Amino acid sequence: MVNYPLLARQLQDGFYGLPATPAELEDHLFGMQAVTYSTVAALFFLIYDVAITFDDEVKYIWPISWGATKIDFFFIRYFPILFLISIQFYGTPRFTYSNHDCYIWNTYQALATILIIAAVDYILLLRVFALYPGNRRIKYLTWSLYFAELITASVGLGLGVPHLRYDQFCGVFYAPTTFFIAAGVPIVFQVYLFVITTCKFIRAVKSGWGTIPILKIIMRDSTWAFTLLFLILVTEAFLYTMAKDAYIGILFGWLNAAFSFCGYRILININRVGRIRRDATRTEDFTDGDIEFTTRVSTNPPESLGG
């Protein structure tokens, strides 16, 4: 059992900038424990969901030929689990680190999170390209915003990590406002993706193509994925600017878990629809950006929809 009063005295003796009173230091340690429990919960959520969808992975993903999207699928499905396991040993009272060690830990976390976001957003933008085949303006705009998101978020984290303040357990108790930028830019990109997907679906419905399975699944997944990621990102941005002390990182594990969950679920769902459609109609497959859909005739609205 953790001796919080003893650890509070150790913190008070060893670090500057932390709350001065023993009661506040003890509250800091409770915050660290809350972050640890939250990260463990996010980890086990991912493990559980991977387990219950493993049959779908075998059935709908394994038969696909190897390409960028299949590699991306396995990365966003399994790397976040390994990542969340790897950070279980920092920020806990059983291990202590130097300030430089904590800096390395947080740099690693920032890089891993950027990679996960980049991998998932790559899947999301491929869906946009599938909805707007041949539309160069949408393609160039989406790619530009994608790279702008990654560059801005990377710069925000790069400027922010050196100014984080830690205790000797690597528990963060102060984060600069640049972290708000790093969390805010992905929000803008998610809004953009959701808006152009919704616009396409509305135009498809008006033209009588709204019942196409692939369009319905894209719109359904866009809605729940956008809602989940938007709420997580907004809350995370709020925590980094307003949260008290160690509670800053309480949703960090869930941020990575949410991106992972959305990414691989979207790929499984879209390939499930394609597989069912192929089995039912015996139509010829085609691949757009390595994502398997049914034939272009049965999944894409006519040119009048603005493709």
Automatic annotation (TrEMBL):
Protein origin, superkingdom: Eukaryota
Domain DUF6533: 37-82
Keywords: Membrane, Transmembrane, Transmembrane helix
Entries under InterPro entries matching the protein: DUF6533 (IPR045340)
Annotated TM spans: 34-54, 74-91, 103-128, 140-159, 179-202, 223-240, 246-268
Signal sequence residues: none
Protein name: DUF6533 domain-containing protein
